[in-house]
Predict the structure.
Amino acid sequence: MSAPTQSAPPAGGTAPTAPQPPRTDAAANTQSTFLAACRGQPVSHTPIWVMRQAGRYLPEYRELRAKVDFESLTRKAELAAEVTLQPLRRFDLDAAILFSDIMTPLQGMGIDLHFDPGPVVRNPIRTDAQIDALPALRPARDLPFVLDSIKLIRPELPRGAPLIGFAGGPFTLLCYLVSGKPSKEFGVARSFLYAQPESAERLLDHLGDAMAAYLGAQAAAGAQALMMFESWAGLLAPREFNRFALRAVRRTMAKLREQTDVPLIYYVNQGSALMQSVADLDVDVIGVDWRSPLSECARILGPNKSLQGNLDPAALFAAPGELKRSAEIVLQEGRAARGHIFNLGHGIWPETSPDAVARLVDYVHESSSR
Ligand code: CP3
């Protein structure tokens, strides 16, 4: 994930967060508010989960990470299941997201990469010969630990919270594969689109097909919604977004619709200028970053999409009253959409206080109760 890790101001409130008692309202025991909101059905309150909710801002995650490296956490089904469940034990969250990484399936395809802390690819992919040599992904053979962790997580989920499976968007994966390392603007990857457009399309098709197989296998193993993280699509002008990123995603989503009927979520970071382009993409939910008001996104997307987002991760550093005011604006803006899942606009920062997350989750539930 790409949340900035520069030092952030200390968050207000340092008392340890007490574990949350289970909610007892009827909705918690019946249909999931998260799945209902994905489909634009009525909900008893606005559901909330947090991008990168399992991670370094949690002391229990850091404790485990002190003993086990990140890749082992993703590759050992029991550990990935444990980390997935950590935030659900602490907060009254309405969904869990599988603990893994968007780069994990690429390791399953034999690509030599490691995390330092972002993904580093030993031999960046830039030639047709390299693209042609990429094997097809066979999830059960190449990533059995991911499917095993889904099977371990499902029976342990508290309060009937559903499990979200995920993959990287084809263009975001291309960014890391072509660039070989994290970058602010991915100039190497973007110039690859212009210099070798046919090669780029072939690589995107290959990645899109691999992610369709991967996400389909996650749903078959028990994932109840599927999210595609297109973290770097906002770097593209609309014409290049349509030609490269969106074309590949359309193909992936069409393949997924043939395999499963779980809700599909497409997250576009910095996607304000791209809302019109994604309006007719066949997904249930569009995830957005904090830069565009949800009401504006809803107006462009129309009545057939729910929205997920979009509090600035930095807002969690506000004093409690100010955090409430920021959350309230997001809730109000979200009422313009046919369904709203509250989330941050991007991954939570490692410096965030868990107390601030607890306050946010409780406030969203209280304020949106109907
Ligand atoms: O949301 C969750 O709780 C599920 C887990 C999850 C991780 N990465 C764990 C992780 C998810 C959904 C991701 C997605 C991901 N990974 C994205 C898309 C979302 C986004 O941020 O735009 C991207 C671009 C990546 C690639 C990646 N992985 C980067 C850039 C980094 C380093 C970022 C950093 O903050 O250090 C990673 C490593 C990573 N992935 C960590 C975690 C918890 C940190 C690993 C550690 O413990 O050291």
